[in-house]
Design brief:
mainly alpha, Arc Repressor Mutant, subunit A, single chain, Tetracycline Repressor, domain 2
């Protein structure tokens, strides 16, 4: 007798990548490129080339999918941040490398911007789960800054405040709208250096 599988669950022999990971990766890109309200479960299914029932099998609501997507995305960002900031280099060099990586790979850390429009759609526990993961992301940078303060590499200030200030600078839109209506984008390396020089003046002991 043939065993029935759960509705929406893909046959195991057709799975080349864990379906839940495929859904999360696809949803992340959609949510980054569009607002929460603009992305539907249908959109995710179409981009993944699977049925909507399959999406619902793994994530029973869009709010659940969004929450898991945000958490996984910030986990990946935190991993990128840790990899760069633990290198055996001067702090300023590490911060510059992270800035260039962010600007080059467009790793989104503008969490407030991404979450805009979700206030009345996510539950309190879902919002808290996302914010908890966000706090851990900031804490990675704060820990590195605090270590630098203890070593006398930079002046002593609130490391969490400094971490937020640094990450906020990375989310600044560097395009400039001229009177002619055109946009000027400085080279990524120049933009990153300007950001770090500005930030460094705020934390340097000089």
């Amino acid at each position: 007798m043939k065993k029935n599988r759960s509705p929406g669950r893909p046959p195991s022999h057709k799975v080349t990548q864990p379906t839940n990971e495929l859904i999360l990766q696809t949803a992340a890109q959609l949510f980054l490129n569009h607002s929460y309200s603009e992305v539907s479960m249908d959109d995710v299914a179409i981009e993944c080339n699977i049925t909507k029932a399959t999406v619902y099998y793994y994530f029973n609501t869009k709010a659940v999918l969004y929450t898991e997507t945000m958490i996984k995305m910030m986990e990946r960002i935190r991993g990128h941040i840790m990899t760069i900031l633990v290198e055996d280099k001067p702090l300023k060099s590490r911060l510059l490398k992270l800035a260039i990586t962010y600007l080059t790979e467009t790793i989104s850390i503008d969490i407030d911007g991404i979450m805009r429009g979700t206030k009345n759609t996510l539950s309190e526990s879902q919002t808290q789960a996302i914010r908890k993961e966000e706090d851990q992301m900031y804490q990675v940078i704060a820990n590195v800054l605090e270590d630098a303060m203890k070593m006398g590499e930079v002046r002593k200030i609130d490391p969490i405040f400094a971490a937020h200030a640094y990450m906020s600078l990375l989310t600044i839109d560097t395009d400039r709208n001229t009177k002619e209506g055109t946009f000027i984008s400085p080279p990524i390396e120049e933009t990153a250096e300007n950001i770090i020089d500005f930030f460094w003046r705020g934390i340097s002991k000089e």
